[in-house]
Design goal:
Layout (H helix, E strand, L loop, with lengths): L2 E4 L2 E4 L4 E7 L8 E7 L6 E6 L5 E3 L7 E6 L4 E6 L8 E8 L14 E2 L3 E6 L1
Parallel strand pairs: 2-11
Antiparallel strand pairs: 1-3, 3-8, 4-5, 4-9, 5-6, 7-8, 9-10, 9-11
Length: 123
């Protein structure tokens, strides 16, 4: 499967942004999807995940502000980001894998990765 992340941009603190992850392939509904982010000079970190039955899981840093969802008919997963903070500034990556039902926070559990989309939150 090939993944294409989009929707990043510049937003003021407190604002909202929705990033998307479009996937190729006919079996998209069987994939679990994870969102990760990497800020400058920092390691990539887990943000949110959704499995094939739409069970979701969030990092504590975004819980209550971010929502991950999927539209299997459109082969797309969304990350709605509200109440954005400057520390949310990062390149956001989506990743996919077909193995397992549980949501996963580990990068090693995802085989397919998109190219990332930059989200910049100004103070």
């Amino acid at each position: 499967v090939q993944l294409q992340a989009s929707g990043g941009g510049l937003v003021q603190a407190g604002g909202s942004l929705r990033v998307s992850c479009a996937a190729s392939g006919r079996t998209f509904s069987n994939y679990k999807i994870g969102w990760f982010r990497q800020a400058p000079s920092l390691e990539r970190e887990f943000v949110a995940a959704i499995n094939r039955i739409s069970i979701t899981y969030y990092a504590n840093s975004v819980k209550g502000r971010f929502t991950v969802s999927r539209d299997n008919a459109k082969n797309t997963v969304y990350l709605q980001m509200n109440s954005l903070k400057p520390e949310d500034t990062a390149v956001y990556f989506c990743a996919a894998d077909m193995v397992g039902v549980q949501v996963s926070t580990r990068e090693s559990d995802y085989v397919y990765w998109g190219q990332g989309t930059l989200v910049t939150v100004s103070s």
